[in-house]
Specification:
With 444 residues, the protein is an alpha/beta fold. 61% of the residues lie in helices and 9% in strands. The protein folds into 3 domains: 28-148, ATPase, nucleotide binding domain (Nucleotidyltransferase, domain 5), CATH 3.30.420; 163-293, Helix Hairpins; 302-443, no CATH class. Helix 3 links the parallel strand 4 and strand 5. Helix 7 packs antiparallel against helix 12 (264-296), helix 15 crosses helix 18 and helix 16 packs across helix 17 (381-392). The chain starts with a helix and ends with a helix.
Length: 444
């Protein structure tokens, strides 16, 4: 069992969880029709139970189209009338993206949609028939039973500008991955056909280098063009920063190149195609971020969140894309739980287990905060001082990674405060006079 302050945090967290669990259970009454649905790409299966777990009617198998959704709505309405139910709670297992249109349809019908943890479904499926067998029909009943026992959560589907922001940031992440892959392929191309190129251009994606790659990428073409010809081509677009010395370096590197000389025609075609992809992904990133910035200007509090030194547009946009409207939360601790950064401990009696984070939340949000915090502990004076304090304090010092995780939680609370209260970042407000004096004494 945790001791001291940790015990108080543990009890407080347990009390909050207990209160929310009681709320969920209380919501499922004898007037509630509980429906669990196993979601697939084309065909869904739904089953209905009452608050005691008695199955009502037959299952409903419906397609993921308008006709299928209308069939589901009619099936639920008939069950509701036949069993004198006044409320419907519809639950799914969010293991993919196929449930999004269904959830939007049901919310449009005024039906409450909840989700159950896929981990819980997997662990409790044997309680249904004492068998590890898995099927869509069985999973639908397992999901319904979890809901009636209060083992569910209410999803926060983004709307309006937050929906646009989530789609744009997800698309940006995919484009960034594609861009990295193309850069790696271009590096692979140079390793095969012009290994010495990096000795002339440290970064191949500069303007002068891209001009060279498009006009004379192979050593043979560089040698045939000559240093003067190369410089003449450069000067058509680049007026400053390059001269004959750089052109002579490129010519010398091409003269002594050990690159492959067979298949150069196909190699040039390959590089041309890779450069087209590179240009496309760069353009997509720029246009995406332009739209993101337009949306951020419309969201109250976003500009105040950007006032934190070391926090940029990508961090704020990614944070809001994952979290949504901050006004839906009562406290920053709720967002910490959403990110899976809340602490867990496995202790019993005198045995004290290892403390870590639950990781039961949005992995993208955790990764975003971690990537943001790495440079902040080096450049942001407040977080730099806190990181030093956490890792060097006399009692219970943290490891560097543990300190960064703790500071990610602090950053969440700061972003929440600035976003909801719409106030500028102030280091004194963040630390408080007492903590600021402690850090100053430890630094001295």
């Amino acid at each position: 069992m945790p001791r001291g302050r940790k015990l108080n945090d543990y009890v407080a967290g347990f009390s909050v969880d207990k209160y929310k669990q009681n709320q969920r259970i209380t919501r499922i009454s004898e007037r509630t029709l509980v429906i669990g649905a196993d979601i697939a790409k084309k065909i869904h299966v739904a089953r209905a139970v009452d608050f005691r777990g008695l199955e009502l009617g037959k299952e409903c198998t419906f397609y993921n189209d308008q006709e299928g959704l209308m069939k589901l709505a009619l099936w639920m309405k008939e069950l509701q009338q036949a069993n004198a139910k006044t409320e419907i709670v519809f639950g799914v297992e969010p293991t993919g993206h196929y449930w999004f249109p269904l959830a939007a349809f049901l919310e449009g019908q005024g039906i409450k949609v909840v989700v159950v943890n896929p981990h819980h479904v997997n662990k409790t499926k044997e309680l249904e028939d004492n068998s590890p067998t898995k099927s869509d029909y069985k999973d639908a009943k397992v999901i319904a039973d979890l809901i009636r026992n209060g083992k569910y959560s209410e999803p926060s589907l983004p709307t309006k500008e937050y929906a646009d922001l989530r789609i744009l940031m997800n698309f940006r992440e995919k484009v960034s991955i594609n861009l990295k892959q193309v850069k790696a392929r271009i590096g692979n191309w140079f390793d095969r056909f012009f290994p010495e190129y990096s000795s002339v251009f440290k970064e191949w994606d500069g303007k002068t280098s891209l001009m060279t790659m498009r006009r004379f990428p192979t050593p043979e073409e560089v040698v045939s063009t000559g240093a003067r010809g190369i410089l003449t081509h450069w000067k058509t677009e680049v007026k400053r920063g390059v001269g004959i010395k750089r052109a002579e370096q490129l010519y010398a590197a091409a003269t002594s190149s050990i690159g492959l000389t067979e298949g150069t025609m196909a190699a040039r075609l390959e590089l041309s195609a890779l450069l087209e992809q590179f240009d496309l992904f760069i353009k997509q990133l720029e246009s995406t971020m332009q739209k993101v910035m337009e949306i951020l200007e419309k969201i109250p509090g976003a500009a105040h969140m950007l006032s934190i030194p070391g926090v940029g547009e990508v961090t704020v946009a990614g944070f809001l894309a994952e979290v949504g409207d901050l006004n839906k939360y009562d406290h920053g601790q709720q967002i910490i739980r959403l990110a899976g950064l809340n602490l867990k401990e496995n202790s019993s009696g005198k045995r004290k287990g290892k403390t870590g984070i639950t990781k039961r939340g949005r992995s993208r949000l955790r990764a975003l905060l971690f990537r943001c915090m790495m440079p902040m502990v080096a450049k942001n004076e407040v977080f730099k001082a806190l990181h030093k304090h956490y890792t060097t304090r006399s009692q219970n010092p943290l490891k560097k990674k543990q300190s960064i995780i703790a500071l990610c939680g602090k950053l969440i609370r700061i972003l929440y405060t600035l976003g909801t209260k719409q106030k500028e970042y102030d280091a004194i407000d963040v630390l408080g006079p007492v903590r600021q004096a402690q850090l100053q004494r430890s630094a001295a």
